[in-house]
Structure prediction request, 528 residues.
Amino acid sequence: MIDRAHARLHRIPGGWTTAQALTLAGILIGATAIRFVALTSTIGRLDGDEAATGIMARDILHGHYFAYLAGSNYMGALEQYLQAGTLAVLPSNPTDLRLVQVALCAVTCLVVGVLGRRVTASGWGGLLAAAIYAVGPYYNVYKGIHSHGAYEAAQLIGVVAMLLALILTPSPRSRWVALGLGLCVGLGVWESSLSLFLVVPAVAWAIASARGSLVGLVPFGIAGAIIGDAPSIGWQFVHGFVGPWSQGTGTSTGSISTKLTGLVHPLLEMFLGVSRPFSDARAISWLPPVIILAVALGLLAAGIVVRWRGMWDLITLRMTHRAPIDMVLVGFVLFGLPYGFSAFTTYTREPRYLFTLYPLLALALAWGVHRIPRRAIPTVAIGLVVAVLAMTITTLRAANAHGETIGHVNGMPILTQDMPAVVAALLRAGAHGLYANYWLAYPIAFAADGNIAVAPSPGLVRFHDQAATVARDPDPAFAAPIGPPADALQAAIAASGATAERINIKSIAIFVHVTPTRRPHQLRTTGG
Prediction:
């Protein structure tokens, strides 16, 4: 009796002991710290896609409404509304813009910890899952600091849906849980279909759990889904129906076998952290990625074999043999089934479409560790976290040294820190309209804070009002990174019979007072 009373005194709400709660707090601090280090490093440079989200956030503050990423009919703009709130109180700069992404990852890490406690039936198992998610693999950290639309929100929506599913019981008191789960469904449909690989198994779990109260709970779930998907519903009411299968600008080029081959190599190797995104170089020179890949696929296959009956019960809405880990394994299977048929999966420079699976990876590894002999668990758990962290740091240092990120023009990196000086030079020269490569144009526009309109050329036009303003400008400027892109642009201006004043500003060359006025279609190149 004394021991039990003593144990209760050292527990806090939620079933965590004081030591576990303090450890979880330390993990969250560590998750935030490693992402903040990455954010302020070379790989944290603001690219064109991120700059576009920053422009969206500022436009939201001025009363503009976005349902999706600007210029797109997919990836909901939830993160940009959160960013607008951030920029309303903090300076408008690349670091503050992406504090939202870091915060979303920290919250996801917390939810992974709570989920892991249920999946492993152990508080320390939950901490292991949170720790794995916090420190890696590398791409989980890399993508988690970049504002590319809806990726971080998709992760969080998915894990919250799984947690709500586990909380739901066949009771009228669960109506608010059902509402929350429905909200996750709606937000997932609006924000990113990638979240559905976590949300769908959660819904299947919840439907089976709600037997006896299903009729009373379903209306709340439907109401939540409508609320969550309301921005998408409103957009489609105005623009016409666009099914999830028709969203985006993906290409169906490439056979199913080609896409699946690309998934295995190099994408899964990048996902696991044994190959570096963008370069496909080994994370550790002496460690062949194929070894880790084979081990990972073998462990996944073993988990499916061990849990096939529970997985079958989950997808057939039964409860007899299912366990929380089955949601995790079904999520992996659901991802793999449509991969070869997707119009987007020919892209293999980075595992962007696998990013949502990182919480599942952390949960699966924690569950696997807790199935080994009990005495070995602490040693294996600590060794696993240290190994993942070491690989993340090693890859971060190498990627930082080589500038392995997007945001290049003909191989020349766009240096975020130079954009304010470029804007100042353009304004001094009287330029208020600018043509530049997509990856340069929007970082300049974000730094300009509305004082310069840009038209990407080449590249996707995300803000048509800005592009129209540039098209009407009688004296638009051009910009390109110093080096071959700027030299090619200068030669193209001269070849068109025009003259221009070239001004080199740090890493960027600007061309102002182009006489006679030239547009991109009149030049053979615009610098990339």
Summary: The two ends are 75 Å apart (CA to CA). DSSP finds 22 helices and seven strands in the chain. The beta strands are 408-409, 412-413, 433-436, 453-456, 477-481, 499-505, 508-515.
